[in-house]
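pinned: reference chain
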Amino acid sequence: MSRDILEGTTDTGRLRFVRRPSRATLLVVFGASLLIAGVTTLLPADPPIPVTEGGGQGVSTLDRAIRTAEAKLAKGGQDPRTWAELGAAYVEVSRVKTDPAYFPKAEEALRKSLAQQPDGNGIALAGMGALANARHDFTGARDWGEKARAALPDNAEIYGVLNDAYTQLGDTAAATATLQRMLDLKPGVSSFTRAAYEFEIHGQVDDARHALDRALADATDPGDVAFCRNLLGELAFDNGDLETAELQFDAGLRAAPQETSLQQGKAKVAAARGQTGRALAGYQDLVTRQPNVGNLREYALLLTSAGAPDSARRHYEQFEEQRRLEVASGANVDLEASLVAADRGDAGQALRFAQAEWGRRQPVFVADALAWALHLNGRDAEALAYADRAASTGWRSATFAYHRGMILAGLGRNAEAVKALADALRVNPNFSVTDVRTARATLTKLGGAG
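pinned: its structure tokens
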């Protein structure tokens, strides 16, 4: 059989993309805002239960999947497979509806599956791993994923759960190894999009784009098409290409008109272009439909930038309400809480949340958050060590460069600060509706080009 191979190099080795005949999709890839990362749920293929969210009219296929499983389980008897399917569907619906109340229901269903089949129940074990990833319990996700791998060593989706966990924990070698195994077993949308992220965090933007193009070529479901288009749009935006970003977001919306991540991208592009009214309207609709912590933070920042502090405060309060709901459901959002505390000028709280998160995991984006929190507390010498850690993979992040530049300026290392701040604006001159102004003003003050 002929093989179409695409290769790219990371600092931990060479990834190989091998094109094989496609097989039935067994998973749902969860989209996230960078910061964060996707999470995978597993559904056995026999009999299949479709879990792609519908286009908006009537009952979605996801709701139908849950009803079908619940009706089957209502008949009683031992059915670990259906309990596992139901648990996986609950994890996905919690994302689609932005409702962490489904997390306990998912856990209950998955644990019932494991109680009925304690040995070799790889699907339920992987479901527990996906649930842990969704809750940002990445250590737990790793542990559940490794148990699932022992039960089903040749199941590609399990390596997706593991890759997500290891990536978020900052274990780059293990993340690369699990991704490579996933690619070897099942090249497709799920593995190519993860590969794109792997390339991006190592500064290989062209390779990341190529991997996303491969994912898009394999996408047939409208939800998968929208997911790939959104990632392509985010990659373009993060590298300063507003025109391409908007084209990708528009193409994604043609495939899935109700997809909120694409609407968020459109609002972000409008804000970057100075179309503040359009951006505010977009975010207002977005947080009404999906008031997750990421959307609420971005809207509050835009309101602050637009000179509406009272409205921004109300949305930060809504952020806190949403954060409490997620914590009550077993989720961890300390990273997001640290970023919001920093936005609001609460340096002490920002540092407490960042230190708590660093105690759990050490990926580069948590290193950056901790560096920034230390800077806000006047501890620039300590902050620089974490800023160095954030830069260690070569990620072309304008935010990382901005934070590093401000830390260097605080240390009086002005020439280095100018370079870092100029790099931030070169990579993405629209990386933040608030921080771009500070970057330019600081450059001017230090004698650089503002």
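why pinned: The two ends are 56 Å apart (CA to CA). The longest strand covers residues 5-10.
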